[in-house]
Structures are given as C-alpha cells and as structure tokens.
Amino acid sequence: LPQDTHAADPEQTALDRMAPANRQIYLLSHYADKTNEEIAQTLSMSYRAVESRLYRSRQEVREYVRRMAM
To answer: How far is residue 26 CA from its own chain's centroid?
Structure first.
C-alpha cells in the first residue's frame, strides 16, 4: 500500500492545502529566509499585503498542526 508521505509532516499538508500565493510567501519567508520587504519586491506586492498574507498563512499552518495533534 502506498504510504501517505505527508502523514508525518502536518506542516507540509497544511502548505499543500493553502492558497498558492500564501504558500509562496510562507515558503519564501520560512525556507528562503527572505524579509517581508524582499518578498514584496520579488512578487511585486505591497509590504502590507505580504505582511497580511504571511500572518494568515502562519495561522493556517498553526491551526492545521494543532488539529492534527488532537
């Protein structure tokens, strides 16, 4: 039987379920160590939009991981 590759990684599952734009911002922030300003410039978005999307994406991951831990 094929094994669920994300079963041990709820963060990855949460990212897979996330809106693509939010996922991209989350990945740039957390894995590419980009600042919000760098992300805004890279994606041609306002700093505030990046800040808001990053906040929401972190909440999504946190909530999903919390639900999976129950």
So the answer is: 4
- In the numeric block, the tokens 């999903």 are attached to 64
CA triplet 27, 10, 59: central angle to 5 degrees?
60
Is-contact 70 56, C-beta < 8 A?
Answer: no
CA 59 to CA 41: how far, in whole Å? 23
Nearest to 19 by CA among 48, 59, 46: 59
pLDDT by residue for the chain (70 residues), tens only, comes to: 344 555 678 999 999 999 999 999 999 999 999 999 999 999 999 999 999 999 999 999 999 999 988 8
Whole-angstrom distance, CA of residue 37 vs CA of residue 9: 29
Q: What is the rounded distance in angstroms from the CA atom of residue 42 to the CA atom of residue 50?
A: 11
